[in-house]
């Protein structure tokens, strides 16, 4: 069993000191950096765009996991690919031609992810699971950090793990929202490979210790 992947979300970082904040991710033992892009339309908040990610690229050797919470993400896939994203994840609810959008991400040289909000069932993405590298199960309604995990989302994690096994797929299952030392064990037990941590990571007194403890809790 591979160790749990921790993906700190820069959404909870202090943007005025972003390079320092990213340096603490680099030094923490986390393997991914999670980049939450919000457009004020698909979700009721606005964050940053491709330039921000491009500027951060030289600051970190880690995997850049870009989570697009934007309407019609297909219009911006190429730009986010050029910004140095490794994964580009789009919401199934935000694009009409989801299959085409995922193919576009791969054709730009990135790994393709599909995300679902708490009210979207797994069945709505079943027909694209053969062409994705990551499935992101939102465990809160997207838009803000620091919310509480919604328990009804957990079943989707186990369903995705079961489908992966039955069909021989290889996607990474990740969860996003309300993940901390109290909730990590349950999501890992359901079959999660990667956890996004916003507030829990950035509020930890010792971020490296936090990552260590999360990985240990996942092993128990
Ligand atoms: C929520 C974002 C998350 C967020 C998670 O809309 O997609 O990535 O940063 O933050 P926490 O871990 O604080 O719930
Ligand atoms: Zn996210």
TrEMBL record:
The keyword Glycoprotein does not apply. InterPro entries: Aldolase_TIM (IPR013785), Ribul_P_3_epim (IPR026019), Ribul_P_3_epim-like (IPR000056), RibuloseP-bd_barrel (IPR011060). It holds the Pfam family Ribul_P_3_epim. One of its GO terms (cellular component) is cytoplasm. Binds 1 divalent metal cation per subunit. GO terms for biological process: pentose catabolic process; pentose-phosphate shunt. The keyword Amino-acid biosynthesis does not apply. A divalent metal cation binds at residues 34, 36, 67, 176. Catalyzes the reversible epimerization of D-ribulose 5-phosphate to D-xylulose 5-phosphate. HAMAP family: RPE. This is Ribulose-phosphate 3-epimerase. Keywords: Carbohydrate metabolism, Cobalt, Isomerase, Manganese, Metal-binding, Zinc. SUPFAM superfamilies: Ribulose-phoshate binding barrel. Substrate binds at residues 9, 67, 143-146, 176-178. It comes from Sphaerochaeta pleomorpha (strain ATCC BAA-1885 / DSM 22778 / Grapes). Its EC number is 5.1.3.1. The gene is rpe. It comes from the Bacteria. Belongs to the ribulose-phosphate 3-epimerase family.
